[in-house]
Amino acid sequence: MQAKRVTFGGGIVPYLLLAPQLAITIIFFLWPAGQALYTSLFAEDAFGLSRQFVGLANFVALFEDPSYRSSFAITVVFSASVAAISLGLGLLFALAADKVGRKAMVYQTLLIWPYAVAPAVAAILWWFMFDPSVGVVARGLRAIGIYWNHHLNGTDALIMVILAASWKQVSYNFLFFLAGLQAIPRTLVEAAALDGAGPWLRFRKIVWPLLAPTTFFLLVVNIVYAFFDTFGIIHATTGGGPGQSTTILVYKVFKDGFESLNLGASAAQSVVLLVIVIGLTALQFRHIERKVHY
After folding, report:
1. 121: left (phi over 0), alpha (psi -120 to 50) or beta
2. pLDDT digits (tens, 9 = 90+) for 200-255
3. Which residues form the domain of 144?
4. Residues in Cβ contact with 233 at an 8 Å cutoff, skipping those fewer than 6 apart
């Protein structure tokens, strides 16, 4: 029996179907990016009433600023930590749920809940848990001789926002890892077990390679999440402090643009941040994807 092929009667129909997505991309992505690039070439007054063309002076001043270089280093530590923790825990929980099977529905539901929590709400929860006066975690740490105070200690504050951001993303990674594990044919794992391969060898030689496409996708998503979607968590907990210990790049864009009203520098920072994320994504697709077998 010959398969039927669907064809469009007119040449304009495919473009009409693409029009909504193209409009969203242009309005919410390409247009703001173009505006940021254009604004970064000017020095504006705080009220946006006058501007002067300065070329690349905003970018030069940006990389000469010690606070920006510090923010860059903090972003590297923060993003790498959030991606590693959330991916690791997501995979660990998915392996546990897949081993239990269908009886783990309650377990799966409880793990999915954190993803439905708004970033600001998740941030406040962790802020209260680690509050040095009333927080249960801070009291527990104090009982074993560790005095926690994210209001004064920059390292404590950075650890807290890393944990909060990772906790928020674990559910997302868990769902995709669990779907990937359930898509692996059981016959392959069972055959390896019959051949004498232990659990770790089966995971390393069979399960992990077959999870490579899922892991690659989640790696890209988690990097973008750590760079952009963690703004609400930092804003609701530390506000970038104490000092600048939790001021990552996306939060520095906000502080310089909306608090200091340095619009040119803020636009230049947003362009640099966009280039960094695009570069990281391209690097992942160019080099890491080569090791991924679909």
Report:
1. alpha
2. 888 888 888 889 888 888 988 898 899 888 999 999 999 888 888 999 999 999 98
3. 65-292
4. 119, 120, 122, 123, 161, 164, 165, 168
> What whole-number distance in Å separates Cα of residue 75 and Cα of residue 276?
11
CB 166 within 8 A of CB 89: yes
Residue appearing with tokens 């089966």 = 202
235: CATH? 1.10.3720.10
Domains contained in the chain, number: 1
Cβ-contact 85, 168 below 8 angstroms? no
pTM of this structure: 0.85
Q: Domain for residue 214, yes or no?
A: yes
- In sequence order, the 6+-apart residues with CB closer than 8 A to the CB of 113 are 171
pLDDT at 163: 94
The letter for the amino acid at 9 is: G
Q: Is residue 13 part of a domain?
A: no
* DSSP one-letter string for 204-233: IIIIHHHTHHHHHHHHHHHHHIIIIITHHH
Q: Is residue 34 part of a domain?
A: no
- Give the side-chain half-sphere CA count within 13 A for 95: 14
What is the enclosing helix (H) or strand (E) of 51?
A: strand 51-53
Round to whole Å and give the CA distance between 285 and 112.
Answer: 28
More confident residue, 286 or 133: 133
Q: What angle (nearest 5°) sits at the alpha carbon of residue 161, between those of residues 159 and 163? A: 70
Look up residue 77 and give its amino acid. V
Q: Is residue 227 part of a domain?
A: yes
Q: Is 8 helix (H, G, I), strand (E, B) or coil?
A: coil
Please count the other Cβ atoms lying within 10 Å of the Cβ belonging to residue 121. 12
φ, ψ for residue 251, nearest 5 deg = -80, -30
pLDDT tens for residues 87-104? Answer: 999 999 999 888 876 666
